[in-house]
Amino acid sequence: MKIDIVSVFPEYFDVMNLSLLGKAQEKGLVEVKAHNLRDWTHDVHHSVDDTPVGGGAGMVMKPEVWAECLDQLLGLEARDLQAGEVGGAIHSSRESRQAKGLTNAAPRLASRSADPSEAADHENPDPQSDQGPILIFPNPSAQLFTQKDATELSHSSHLLFGCGRYEGYDARIPDYYRAQGVQVREYSIGDYVLNGGEVAVSVMLEAITRLIPGFVGNPDSIVTESYTGEEPLLEYSQYTRPTSWRGLEVPAILTSGDHAKVDRYRRDEALERTASIRPDLVQALDCKRLDKKDKAK
Ligand code: 6GU
Fold first, then answer.
1. CATH 3.40.1280.10 holds for 2-219
2. Cβ(58) to ligand 1 under 6 A?
3. Do 1 and 31 form a contact (C-beta atoms < 8 A)?
């Protein structure tokens, strides 16, 4: 997987050479490259932002600088869109969302979508079908990044992250690249505000890359964990030896050697914990997947 990151603080990503991600780079599983957005400026001040049109506080990242950078990294020619290419308007956001439905799905280039069965499908990612680079913008006002997104993106061969700082980036940037047939995603990592996208990209990258086959030593360790699979529940509590420690005992069932009972105990604990801490996840469970003993709860 090729990973390009664009930021005004590319040094943030020096840590990508450490730990498991560093090992994965040595193994050739991933190749991470952080670029400095200011390398694509032409003025003496290397400015990347300007005041918001319509007024208000803060600064907004300029579209021209971003586009010169992204065109180069994506291998695209600059061009002016014709009226109608972005949901009936060159303007971003509300008009285009209303025209297309609020979605991260991109209109795909004809050359990339010759086979309609290969259409981008969040429900059923196909590791075999490579749909070209995916352009990802961290944005606190976007949809929430989830384990499902991480799983889908882990099958991609090229991810390009554009880190915004300050009050954000000109909303025409993602619209323009969608109209160019690029798959564009915008994600928030949670309901809180960070100073910029760098930390959010680090979080998303860690969630995505650890799912690449061969990245984690024991692949079993990532299939039972929280948020994973058909039925995302919080994980049950884990214990190790000694079974008796400072007056606290490991639940007796776990030392019984009865695997069916252990599985039942762990599932009950996961369900109870999830219902208490994340009732939204329990509500989202497919009732058909719950067994009779679950329903008795
Ligand atoms: Cl993606 N960016 C910023 N700046 N703040 C955030 C975020 C992203 N997700 C949550 N807060």
1. yes
2. no
3. yes
